């Protein structure tokens, strides 16, 4: 992966991995010198990709709840009638922004890791995706009929948390 990239992509790869330029073996030994095994870096990158996917899902949920709540599309997704959607519009609007803020935290964390601010970035990633996973768990525990929705919005963030934490512990 790293040896085949050039230009801005190679620079971004090196920053994400916390490495300097050089041949792949040199990069691996530098990673170890910096206290980061290559395996850790790879697992953290997987976690960052999953965090990005989870953030995009939550941006979509924001759009459904805060922008399109009363449309037939959003009503079909959430199983509401036109009257229910109208009655709950303000609540959904507010809830949508919660989802947007979680997505922003996760995406900002990914960007910060990519530009070299690893500690702050990973903190934001774990805060964002950890909160997404926790919210999905609350949804599941509060209403078992919402299990499918909880899984759709919670599995990817949970996998991101696991990947980042495992990558940090390797």
UniProtKB/TrEMBL annotation:
The keyword Transmembrane applies. It comes from the Bacteria. InterPro entries: DUF1304. The chain crosses the membrane at residues 41-63, 96-115, 122-141, 147-169. Keywords: Membrane, Transmembrane, Transmembrane helix. The keyword Membrane applies. PANTHER family: BLL0914 PROTEIN (PTHR38446). This is Epimerase. It comes from Cellulomonas phragmiteti.
């Amino acid at each position: 992966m790293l040896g085949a990239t050039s230009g801005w992509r190679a620079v971004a790869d090196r920053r994400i991995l916390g490495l300097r330029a050089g041949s792949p073996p040199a990069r691996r030994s530098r990673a170890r010198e910096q206290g980061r095994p290559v395996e850790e870096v790879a697992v953290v990158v997987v976690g960052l990709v999953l965090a990005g996917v989870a953030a995009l899902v939550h941006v979509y949920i924001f759009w459904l709840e805060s922008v399109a709540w009363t449309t037939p599309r959003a009503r079909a997704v959430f199983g509401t009638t036109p009257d229910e959607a109208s009655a709950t519009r303000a609540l959904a609007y507010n809830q949508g922004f919660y989802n947007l803020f979680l997505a922003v935290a996760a995406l900002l964390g990914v960007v910060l890791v990519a530009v070299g601010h690893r500690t702050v970035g990973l903190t934001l990633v774990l805060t964002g995706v950890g909160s997404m996973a926790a919210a999905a768990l609350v949804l599941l525990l509060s209403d078992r009929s919402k299990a499918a929705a909880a899984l759709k919005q919670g599995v990817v963030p949970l996998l991101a948390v696991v990947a980042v934490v495992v990558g940090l512990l390797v």
